[in-house]
Every structure is written in C-alpha cells, then in structure tokens.
Specification:
2 copies of one chain form a homodimer. Chain A contains 8 helices and 9 strands. Chain A is an alpha/beta fold and 272 residues long. In chain A, strand 5, helix 6 and strand 6 form a beta-alpha-beta unit. In chain A, helix 5 packs across helix 6 and helix 7 packs antiparallel against helix 8. Chains A and B meet through strand 4, helix 5 and helix 6 of A and strand 4, helix 5 and helix 6 of B. Strand 4 of chain A pairs antiparallel with strand 4 of chain B, so a sheet runs across the interface.
Chain lengths: 272, 272
C-alpha cells in the first residue's frame, strides 16, 4: 500500500482516504462519494482495529463482510481497498501509541477507556501508509472527528480532514453497523435517540437555553422507551467538548445510549 | 518548512534530516557529514524541545547559540536549518503525544519521566514537517535511538533511521552540549564514565560474563572519583533494553552519572 501510494503521488495524484471498519452502509458510501469528488485516487481502508475496543466490547462480534464491501466500494468509484491483517498493523513488539489529553476525557472517553488512543494510533498509521492529502470521517462519530482534526493539527499531518454529515434511515435513526445487533423491539426504542435530539432542537428554537433543562427533557424522552439505558447526554463546546451550562453559542448535543446490549451514539449542533 | 520539503521532494530530491537541540559540537557535525552522504538535501533542525525536559531539568539553562550553529552547519554542507519557535511546535490547545510503552521504562526512563514521550512527539512532528527519507541520530543517546527506530517502525514512517557512532574528546569523554556545564575538577571526574566502560570491556574480553560483577566493577571505578553520583549502570539487550544477567550475546552497557550538577550518559556494546 505504501509503495502504491508513493506511485500515485509521484504520478501527480491527490489521494483521498476513507478509513472504515467495513460492513458498509449508506453512511460509508456517502463518505466515499464525497471522497470521489476530493481525490484523483480514492482509497478506502477496512480494518476492525483491535486497539480501539475495550476487553468487554464487541471486537469479535463486530460484523464483517469483505466481499460485499468490495462490491459496494467499487459501485461508488473506490480505486483501492486497503484491508490489512491485525498482525500487519500491530507487529510483534509494537508499543507506540498516539494519545490526546483533553479530548479523550469527555463524552465516550469515560465509558471507553483507551478507545481514542486506539483510534488516534491507527489513524496515524493509516496516514503514514496511505499518505492522503484528504481524509473523510463521518460526523456521527463526532468526538472521533474532533480527535482526528486535533491530531492532524498537532502532529503536522499535511492532510485536510473533512467531516461528512450523518446519514439516517427514513425514520431518523443514524446509520451504524451496530444497528444490525438490534431486535425489532429494540429498533423501535432506538428511534428515541434521534427524537430526543429533535426535542432539544425544538426546545432551543423556543428559547430554552439552560443546558440542564435541555438534557433532562432529552433524557426523559429516552427513558420513556423500553430497553434503553443512557450512558451520557451532554451539551458541550463543539471544538473542546467541554460542558456548557447555557446554549448561548452553537453547542453540541451528544449522547450515547444502550439499547439492549447495543451501544448507540448520535449528536447534533443546537443553534440558538 | 513543509512547503520547502514538498518542493524538494517533487523535484526528486532525497531529504536527510539531522534533528538536534543545537549548540553544535563534533558529534553533531559527524551526523551532518553522514547526512550529507545520505541525502540530496540535508536539513538540520535546531529546537530545544520543552516537552522532553522535566520540571526540575535544565530547559532554561540549556546552551543556545544559533549564529554559531548556522556557521558550523554551513561549513559541513547543510542546505536548510529549521529552527522553529516553541509556540509554533506546540500551539495553543496542543494535546497530542506519542508514547512508547516498554522502551520508555528502562535506563533513563525512571529518572526522566515524560522525557521519551517528549522526544517521540517532537520527532513525529519533525518527520511530518520535514518529510525526510533518512534521519540520523547519535548512538550516544542510545535509548533515544532505540525509541525512534521502534516509533518509525510502529507508526509506518517511511524513514530510514541511521545511528552514528559517538564522537569523543581526545581523552575519551563523549561529546555533549552539557559538558560545558562542568568545572575543571568535574571534567576530570567525568572521564571515569568512559574509563569504567573500558574496564567492563576488558572484563568481558577476559571472559567475565556475570552482569552483576561487571556492573559492580564499573560502578566502583566511578565511585572512586569525586563529584560523581551514579543514576544507573545497566547491562541490557541492545534492542529491547531489558536487563541481561550474563553477557552471552552482545549486550549494551549504558550508564547515567551525575557529575556535580550535570547528568551525563554514555554507552557501549560489550561483545563476548
């Protein structure tokens, strides 16, 4: 892959990279369609990265289907699929990690210790292997996007980071490979995540600015659905991810909710 | 610098980088002379990196002389000096660090917490800014060299790391910018560091293999000189830096010694 990237760059191509864990849905394909516009050469990586899963998380169960992914990637114009083995990405004696201080502490940080270290490390490797000028990430994983923007800036990667809006099912549920874990009952309850964000958006539109009140109404709606358990509902600064007390500026509402055994995330910017 | 590096690469040059903290002595110039052979474009960075100094260390006192350094660099054929300000290398909100697990734990690790994190972070930045194909580091800072070799491998930097042998004064003292801190009395005592390594080399040549005995004789010689205080004397595996009990294979003798208020390091491979 590194040799191929060097060849592409020496031939004057701009490389666009869409890093993924595979099992593609419309959200991934939206990233690739945008990447197709941004680069002469469009590369998608497929790698279920072990270091970003905690010991009790779903690394083994995470859905995989490389053949189907390859067909879908080809259909949207991907030039190269880079699907390394874990033993290649982390060879024997591997011990180097990339960490971020503040941005790892908020939102998903406390319930997923080590997760963003794993993300930052694998993205650093991918950037050095694929050598993109442009890389695209979904806004659904908002904290991941913030971490990668900061990482690219701090480590002076000459890579433009592009966030692509969340793609949703017709009823509003944010697309996620993990949605396949949901039973029909759970699928109905999962809809409360998006609905609760809409409720907060309506609250802000009506002039409510108190973060505690907005979070309480959001949480209340989710709690009223069976199978749900809130990990967090937060209103925070969109860049630093630090909590805000009032929505005086555009603020990020981010939440993580267990629906049965499946942990789902979603977010939106609330603009007063 | 990043634009200049891109221009040099697009014109087909091989870039060789010698990262330094400045205040050049013959050791630095040896790195540059070797770099001159390895690259079409030879770049030296001069940056006293704050994140690799502990709070009680000599960051402020570290000697600096950019004008003299520029003349010396030019005299050995350096094409570009990259001397950034600290505010540029670590902008407001900087929070991304590169860490190594095992290699940071040994030798200088315990007495310099955070040091190798600082080294690994700044070298990652420098690699992304200067974009070298070759980078040269002195063998005097053996652990640093081991850390950077591992870092380059783990993060897939396409950079060849070259170690350059330690340059010594006529009497054997390893060259170091910190030697300028020594009083004439301390300068005499500092010589015991190299002499003690020679004693261990003679011991191994005579067939002594027990690490404890070799370390005891080394330490004894240093202790017999005034103003000295040993931080560590270690015999270890040259790649993993894990302690060895016997010198059955080529082993690294590494030591750090306080001479007055100055901490000096030196090392050699002992070959049975």
């Amino acid at each position: 892959m590194q040799q191929e990237a060097t060849r592409l760059l020496q031939a004057g191509n701009t490389i666009a990279l869409v890093p993924t864990m595979g099992y593609f849905h419309e959200g991934h394909l939206a990233l690739m369609r945008e990447g197709r516009k941004q680069g002469d050469a469009l590369i998608t990586s497929i790698f279920v990265n072990p270091t970003q899963f905690g010991p009790s998380e779903d690394f083994q169960a995470y859905p995989r289907d490389l053949n189907r992914d390859a067909r879908l990637a080809e259909s949207v114009g991907v030039d190269v699929i880079f699907a390394p083995e874990a033993e290649m990405m982390y060879d024997q004696g591997h011990q180097t990690y990339v960490t971020l201080d503040a941005l790892s502490l908020y939102l998903c940080g406390p319930s997923r210790p080590g997760h963003f270290r794993g993300v930052a490390t694998v993205v650093t490797k991918l950037f050095n292997i694929v050598r993109p000028q442009v890389a695209l990430f979904g806004e659904k994983d908002y904290q991941q996007l913030a971490v990668i923007r900061r990482l690219a800036r701090d480590l002076y990667f000459d890579v433009r980071i592009i966030g692509v809006p969340t793609v949703r099912e017709a009823d509003g549920l944010a697309m996620s490979s993990r949605n396949t874990y949901l039973s029909p009952d759970e699928r109905r309850s999962a809809l409360s995540i998006h609905q609760s964000i809409q409720l907060a958006q309506e609250g802000v539109a009506k002039g409510i600015k108190d973060a505690r009140q907005l979070v309480a109404e959001t949480s209340g709606l989710i709690h009223s659905h069976p199978h749900t358990k809130i990990d967090y509902v937060t209103l925070c600064d969109p860049e630093t991810l630090e909590d805000v007390k009032r929505v005086d500026e555009p603020s990020l509402m981010a939440l993580a909710v267990w629906v049965g055994h499946t942990r789902l995330i979603d977010n939106a910017i609330l603009t007063p």
